[in-house]
Amino acid sequence: MIKSANTNTPLALALETSGRIGSVAVGCDGKLSDERIFSAPLRHSAELFDTIIELIDKSNKKANQIGYVCISIGPGSFTGIRISVTAAKMMALAAQSKILAVSTTDAMALNVEDKKIKKIATIIDAKRGQFFIAVFERKDGTWKKILADCLLTAEQFKEKFDLPNEPIWLLGEGLLYYAKKFETDNIKILNEKFWSPRASNIFKIGVQMAEEGKFSDPLTVVPFYLRRPEAEENWEKKQTKSTGS
C-alpha cells in the first residue's frame, strides 16, 4: 500500500502512451495530485521524460522517490507502450520503483461515469480490418469486463452485440476513422472526449493493484498485444520467402 504522506512518502507515477494522446499523472498516498496531457497526438517520445521531470519537481520530490510506476500495458500501439515499459524498467533499475501493469481497456472504461449507461465496448484499431475490443457491463456501480480483450472485425462485433433493446456504447481511438462501421440503432458512439485512455485512470487502477500486491517483474514485463507487431510479422514473411520454406 502507498504510505501516508510525508517528506519521505514515495511518489506514484502513471504513464499512458498506448494511444494517440499521451499523458502522465502523479500522486502520493494513493491520491492523484496532478496530470499532464501531451500537447499534440503522437508526442510520446518527445514529451514523456520532460513531463515526468516537470511533475516530479512540482511535487517537491526527487526521481529516486518514485516508489510506483503504473503503466498502460495494452492492448494498443506496440511502439507507444514500449516507450512506457522501457521508462518503467529504467526507474526500477535506478530507483527500485515497483511496476504496475494496468490494462488499457480497464482504464478506458473509467472514462464513462454516466450511471445511465449500462454497457460499453472499447475499440482500438489493430490494423488490417481488425480491432482490439473489450466489453464491460455496469454491475454494483462499477464496470465489469464481460468480454476479455480480443481481436474482432466490426462485423463480428455486430453479430454478437447488435441486439434489440440492449444498447451498447462505444469509445476508443479505433473509432476515429471507422465509427460508421460499428454504428447501428443499438450500437451508439460516445463523444470523442471519452475515447482516449488517461494517465489519471491508470493511476487509479494502479493504486488499487498496489494495495493488492499485483506488481510486475521488471525483467519480464512486456507490452500486452494479441498478436505480434506488424514489423515482426513482415520480417518473418520475408525470411520465409528468402528460404523458400
How would you describe this protein?
With 245 residues, this protein is an alpha/beta fold. The protein folds into 2 domains: 11-105 and 197-227, Nucleotidyltransferase, domain 5 (2-Layer Sandwich), CATH 3.30.420.40; 112-194, ATPase, nucleotide binding domain (Nucleotidyltransferase, domain 5), CATH 3.30.420.40. Helix content is 32%, strand content 29%. It is built from 7 helices and 10 strands. It has helices at 44-58, 78-95, 104-109, 154-161, 179-182, 199-211, 230-243; strands at 11-16, 23-28, 31-37, 66-74, 98-103, 119-127, 130-139, 142-152, 168-171, 187-189. It has a 5-stranded mixed sheet, sandwiched between helices. A hairpin with a 2-residue loop joins strand 7 and strand 8. The longest helix has 18 residues, at 78-95. It is elongated, with a radius of gyration of 19 Å.
